[in-house]
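We modelled each protein-ligand pair independently. The example shown here corresponds to the zinc ion entry; the chain sequence is given first, followed by the ligand as SMILES.
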Amino acid sequence: HEGMYTREELKELVAYCAERGIEVIPEIDVPGHNEALAAAYPEFFCFPDHNTKVSTTGGVGLYLVCPQKPEVWKFYAAVFKELKDIFPSKIVHLGGDEAPTELWEKCPLCRQARAKASMRDEQEQMRDFFARMTSLLAKNGQTPQFWYEGNAGIYHPGETVYAWRQDQARQSIDKTKKAGLNLIMASNEYCYLDFPQIQGQYNWGWMQTTTLRKCYELDPAFGKSPQETGHIRGVHAAAWAEHLPDLNHLLYRVYPRAMAIAEAGWSPMNVRSWDNFRRKVADHRAFVLKRFNYDLERTKENEPPFRWENKK
Ligand SMILES: [Zn+2]
């Protein structure tokens, strides 16, 4: 809710990463998680509310764009075109997470469309919505990825989804395999690096403490055999920024846990060694602190619960 990147800044970031072998994949979350869109273009939504304000906290909103409004599709076609100009990646993450369908259920236009297409429910409408989004991306030679939400049937074979909900990660392995999907493991109890990493650290009332050792124990296959897990493409560490006040604090949360997730991605369980990993982390410590110009004292002052207005 504060500030933005210019197109030039993003291009600079993409180039900086490319020089270091990193591909930047943009995410445009649809059909939900878009309160800023609801504030700017209320007419895109099932029940336009011209008083919508951009939220200043994280959370799940009820607003989903209405797939029955042609201007929505015109808008996303323009967004994807602009995105392609900035991000050369052939992948666009479309989110798709935390999209409660209550308003789709009530919307007269959506109801009519479901009846006409003989759709059983809003989940089928979601599947159709994703398919239309995918065909928009295909025009630019791009393919989508999604946050997995438990119903493998709403995605399409060959697509890639990220398992992020702790209660769904293990079962997602079988379900996505059956549905012909690729899977990236990002189960939050191991992979969410904005969560506190030391017992007693402030957790905003809901984040669970995810220690370095817990991260290191991530088995992306959850004990399943190579035959059952051949569709797992890798691991993913998320660092959601709504509770991270500045870059210094971001680094404080991300390291050294990012190293543990990286090793979980590279190394089968039978060659992992916690003691050996700790030794390597110690070797990297000085490098990380120096490389990022990291200021531990400043981080302590900024220990949550900070207030946004104090961060400058
Ligand atoms: Zn609608």
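The pocket of zinc ion is lined by residues 46, 66, 68, 104, 107, 109-110 (CB under 6 Å).
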